[in-house]
Amino acid sequence: MTDLKMDLLYSRERISTEITRLAQEIDRDYQDQEVLLVVVLKGSLLFAADLLRALKVSASIDFVRLASYGSETQASGIVEFRYNLETPIRDRNVIIVEDIVDSGYTLESLFNKLLHQQPRSLKICALLDKRARREVDIEADYVGITMEDGFVVGYGLDYNEKYRQFADIYLVKP
Ligand SMILES: O=P(O)(O)OC[C@H]1O[C@H](OP(=O)(O)OP(=O)(O)O)[C@H](O)[C@@H]1O
Ligand code: HPA
Ligand SMILES: [Mg+2]
Prior knowledge:
Elements: E1 6-10, H1 12-29, E2 34-41, H2 45-54, E3 58-67, E4 80-83, E5 93-101, H3 105-115, E6 121-129, E7 142-146, E8 152-153, E9 169-172
Parallel strand pairs: 2-3, 2-5, 5-6, 6-7
Antiparallel strand pairs: 1-9, 3-4, 8-9
Helix pairs in contact: 1-2
Bound molecules: 1-O-pyrophosphono-5-O-phosphono-alpha-D-ribofuranose, hypoxanthine and magnesium ion (MG).
């Protein structure tokens, strides 16, 4: 049961189709190389698991925990690093895995931090791209779905820590 009003926006089938395509693009770009997926917890958990399973290229995985939204639907602009990578990324092909790019603050701070550690390459793979709300100049290299404005939940995305468990993505009604 939910206490928010919401409409189905992207079905599990649509999500799966986009992830298959993203994995094909990554496989093509990194033929005969290895990649390290840097997964931004918590929201990207389900996306990263499905993307990892869809990849054919040799892939490792590590995690960072960033948070800026808390119980709000607007970016606070303050990105908190709650825990960090275990893996040294120097000379690695790093792909940041994000569930959603919204204001861009989260990705901007992570991207700059990782860039300082001198990876061989650094790319961004985002399931959802909400361009309407962008406040900083950052773009994902691999984008699942470019969406309209609106707050979404499900498939890892939360409102106040709830609804991450839904297999589909829903648009919260205002
Ligand atoms: O582009 P931005 O405006 O920075 O928003 C995107 C980020 O916000 C959400 O994380 P949140 O802070 O809610 O943490 P969570 O992943 O634990 O839910 C989302 O999962 C992205 O990481
Ligand atoms: O639309 C959203 N839903 C959930 N979390 C988010 N973090 C940024 N934008 C969103
Ligand atoms: Mg959140």
